[in-house]
Amino acid sequence: MLSQKGRYALHALLVLAAQKNGEPMMIADIAEKARVPRKFLEQILLELRKRGILRSQRGRQGGYMLGRSAKEISFADIIRVTDGPLALSPCVSVTAYQRCEDCEDEATCAIRKALLAARDATAAVLETQTLAGASSTPRRTRRGA
Amino acid sequence: MLSQKGRYALHALLVLAAQKNGEPMMIADIAEKARVPRKFLEQILLELRKRGILRSQRGRQGGYMLGRSAKEISFADIIRVTDGPLALSPCVSVTAYQRCEDCEDEATCAIRKALLAARDATAAVLETQTLAGASSTPRRTRRGA
DNA sequence: TTAATCTCTATTGACTCGATAGAGATTATA
DNA sequence: TATAATCTCTATCGAGTCAATAGAGATTAA
Q: Strand C footprint at Cβ < 7 Å?
């Protein structure tokens, strides 16, 4: 399950993705449109910015905008920031790989095999789904698979 | 990420799946072979039993055995017991569905679409991988697909 | 100069996680 | 029938995480 933070982040980013090009949007506005507690959202946006998913402008007339084009921000990118690796075990994580301490042989570990297949399947989907594809589509009914 | 409980459960069940037919195995033995703290394992096995994945025999000569054939116990079954639904959001969970309180329309929610695709992909893999497929195969090369 | 913003860090309460403990119930067997 | 060997159940603990709130600091447009 995603954390609340993760859900908030997805909502906020979709709001930002729907914003007219480049225009920064204030935290307060994002909070209202995405229905996220404002102070909590501040922390989330800050983290997303540090990870390059958002850019910000400080001071008057400031606000947040996407750090790169919407089609280059995948759900996987976002979820990894808010909820950590997609993988079910560190030994199959691409972004946070870590060997299991007492694993005898990674190559033959049955658990690892299964979890690796699961990770690959999940990542394949979430890396394909981007803010561009998801944002309130200018397309017709996009009943995408 | 899986919880420690989930990892322990997988290890323990693989140990049980490798056991000669029907023979009950004592908690203490499973704990040793699976390298799991014994008292913690007790709780895990108890839960797996309540969910039908294991059967037990009490008293002397007692122990645990698989609740059904190894090929009918999938990784998904196990993980759902120890770590909850595979889905990233209740609104796309098959086993624990729950509507998002403030979701305007499930049919068009972009987030839901993405998370549903992710869930389906993950479930497809984890429901296919079973204890039979994973346990130290009596097959020849054990380099199983 | 000042008001409007984002930035950073701390704090709080509730909850979960991993683990340990121990008394209770059941059963094979001597 | 007595007993030892098992599983069963519930409570407890400390550490950590999660969701949320708070407030002082830094930056910038006007």
A: A 24-28, 42-43, 45-46, 49-50, 56-64; B 3-5, 8, 37, 39-40, 42-43, 57-62
Same-domain check for residues B13 and B59: yes
CB-closest option in B11, B117, B125 to A118: B125
Dump pLDDT digits (tens) for A127-136: 999 999 886 5
Q: Which residues, at least 6 apart from B124, have a Cβ–Cβ distance to it below 8 Å?
A: A121
d(CA A32, CA B69): 53
Residue B64 contacts strand D, CB under 7 A: yes
Which tokens go with B55? 């059967």
Torsion, CA A119, CA A121, CA A124, CA A129, rounded to 10: -100
Task: Kindly state whether A113 is in contact with chain B, defined as any CB-CB distance less than 8 angstroms.
Answer: yes
| A9 and A59 part of one domain | yes
For residue range B40-71, list pLDDT tens digits in order.
999 999 999 999 999 999 999 999 999 999 99
In this complex, the residue of B10, B88, B113 whose CB is nearest that of residue A1 is B88
Task: Using the structure, give the distance in angstroms from the CA atom of B43 to the C1' atom of D18, rounded to a whole number.
Answer: 25
Domain termination site, one of A38, A66, A94: A66
pLDDT at B138 > cutoff 80: no
User: How many domains does the structure of chain A reveal?
Assistant: 2
